[in-house]
Amino acid sequence: xxxxxxxxxxxxxxxxxxxxxxxxxxxxxxxxxxxxxxxxxxxxxxxxxxxxxxxxxxxxxxxxxxxxxxxxxxxxxxxxxxxxxxxxxxxxxxxxxxxxxxxxxxxxxxxxxxxxxxxxxxxxxxxxxxxxxxxxxxxxxxxxxxxxxxxxxxxxxxxxxxxxxxxxxxxxxxxxxxxxxxxxxxxxxxxxxxxxxxxxxxxxxxxxxxxxxxxxxxxxxxxxxxxxxxxxxxxxxxxxxxxxxxxxxxxxxxxxxxxxxxxxxxxxxxxxxxxxxxxxxxxxxxxxxxxx
Length: 292
Description:
Layout: E1 2-4, E2 7-9, E3 27-31, H1 35-47, E4 51-55, H2 58-67, E5 72-75, H3 84-94, E6 99-103, H4 108-116, E7 121-124, H5 129-142, E8 158-164, E9 167-170, E10 175-177, E11 183-184, H6 188-199, E12 204-205, H7 207-214, H8 219-223, H9 226-247, H10 254-261, E13 270-273, E14 277-280, E15 285-289
Parallel strand pairs: 3-4, 3-5, 5-6, 6-7
Antiparallel strand pairs: 1-2, 8-9, 8-15, 9-10, 10-11, 12-14, 13-14
């Protein structure tokens, strides 16, 4: 095998299975500014029976998603204009399409950041075509192999933050602000769990759903138990609320604050629903920004 243009060239793969004549081919979008690499990837996947579209930057990516039903996006990080990480975050908040990040940036920290930004898988160049094909197939199987319903950006502005009971969860800054304005430190797994509950406000979210969403963020932490993460998140919310109450308590009512600490767990923000999952109790509003 030889490496050229970020691809490990291997002997030709076996012929693709016969195309399904009753359904359209699964449609992939390759976002890569190097035309030769983009062409090689597109040709390889077209030969495997996929319908491949190409885009060189974020502008063409948006145009393609508006016009076509895309089943999977293969996204490079180093792009002209808006970079791949920013595009990935925007895609995750506005579209249901799975994302496979394909880049020459392969440090562990970069992989973690890529997955935390919303990528469903992360692959480093140079890569073997067989591995890319296997990852594409696995990701399509995992997501059902159906195109995400793209939204009309004019009718569906991008969500930038969730607000509930004075708290604000910033999706772009990946931070949580308490009612008193203090920043509450969260791990990536805790942030992902809270964001998922906010996105499904008023609904019971199963442990399986929280686990599946969290595995894109920090698998080891989620493997230790969703219940443990919920417990940690509750303690952080309660600790911040109690600290705020103590800071504003007078000497006369300090004793009353102390007495209610044990029973006032931030008015039950996250409720456990037995044998079902978890529910974010307070009403949730969103902050948005217009699509570019």
